[in-house]
Amino acid sequence: MEETNRRRRLQAQYNEAHKITPETIRKEIHNILDSVYEGDYVTVATVQEEAVEYKTVEELDHYITGLENQMKEAAAKLEFEEAARLRDEIRNLKEQRLEVY
Questions:
Q1: Rounded alpha-carbon distances, angstroms, from residue 36 to 41, 94, 99
Q2: Domain ranges in the chain?
Q3: Which long-range contacts (CB under 8 A, 24 or more apart) does 33-41 make?
Q4: pLDDT tens, residue by residue, 10-66
Q5: Using an 8 Å Cβ cutoff, are 72 and 63 in contact?
Q6: CA 9/CA 3 separation, integer angstroms
Q7: What is the reported pLDDT for 8?
Q8: Alpha-carbon span 62 to 60, nearest angstrom
Q9: Alpha-helical regions (H) of the chain
Q10: pLDDT tens digit string along 76-87?
Q11: CB atoms within 10 A of CB 86
Q12: Are 86 and 71 in contact (CB under 8 A)?
């Protein structure tokens, strides 16, 4: 207790010598839900693409080949998210092709 009172006296002397008037700090209260950590719990809406119908298996194979070329181009341009999206689409189309046989 004595140490605290001693420090307060020293601070009061310093403030008086330098004409400092202590003031309370006033800050806004921020919404805790706006914190960086809460961003981990946000759910992202998914978009369902339209199903494309193919007349023949050959048309489907041709479309898959085109997508594979686009995927390779995207990977070469270091657009890995686009390449991964195309990879997933190719995988789904190949599963559809297997269902046809």
A1: 10, 40, 45
A2: 2-100
A3: none
A4: 999 999 999 999 888 887 776 666 665 655 665 666 776 666 676 778 888 888 999
A5: no
A6: 10
A7: 94
A8: 5
A9: 2-17, 57-76, 80-100
A10: 999 899 999 999
A11: 21
A12: yes
Alpha-carbon distance of 56 to 59, in angstroms, equals 5
> Distance (Å, rounded) from C-alpha 65 to C-alpha 71?
10
- In this predicted structure, what is the pLDDT of residue 54? 66
Q: How many CA atoms lie within 13 A of 22 on its CB side?
A: 8
CA angle 27/40/88 to nearest 5° reads: 150
Tokens of 74: 């995207």
Token duo for residue 41: 């719990």
Give the residue carrying structure tokens 């009061």: 12
Give the C-alpha distances (Å, rounded to integers) separating 33 from 30, 43, 53, 58: 9, 14, 44, 52
User: Environment class of residue 44 by beta-carbon count within 10 Å: exposed (0-12), middle (13-18) or buried (19+)?
Assistant: exposed
